[in-house]
Amino acid sequence: MKKMVTMILLALTLALTGCGYNDFQRLDEQTKSAWSEVLNQYQRRADLVPNIVATVKGEAAFEQETLTQVIEARAKATAMQVTPETLNNPEAFQKFQAAQNQLGSALSRLMAVSERYPTLQANQGFRDLRVQLEGTENRVTVARNRYIQAVQAYNILARSFPTNLTAMAFSYAPKPSFAVQNEAVISAPPVVDFSKDKPKP
Description:
8 helices
């Protein structure tokens, strides 16, 4: 009897391996890990915003509308609750990504406007924050690209035969990725490098 149970367990193990079950486990964990890194970099960017805003507020007559847009975009981006289920919910994923894109765009506009203020550009604290922001945007881009690659590998497995049968049996649905219209943003982070002197508009 024990021998028969052992053989059945062995047969089940081989069947699960052959149908991609273990690959689903591995790739699912890879996508979660890649997404965690995206979230870490988004948080890093959000943490820079209060210091940037505080520095910019010290500049007389700075455009308040631009500053307000950054503050509101950060509030919206950080207010959204992200759970592991977000990765399996295309609608929630899209809303979260839209909020992050809005923050990135607002920060990009803020940095562009700051060029009009020579004293702000000469502020060492602002220059340091600008460098940190540029580095963070680059890290966001790298992290998002890694997530895209992880999701692509997972989704190919979920949609290919015969592993798609395993996906249906164990409820491994394809995961949402960044929308095509966002790929230009993903590959080109906001330009925040003002190391070269530029004439005022």
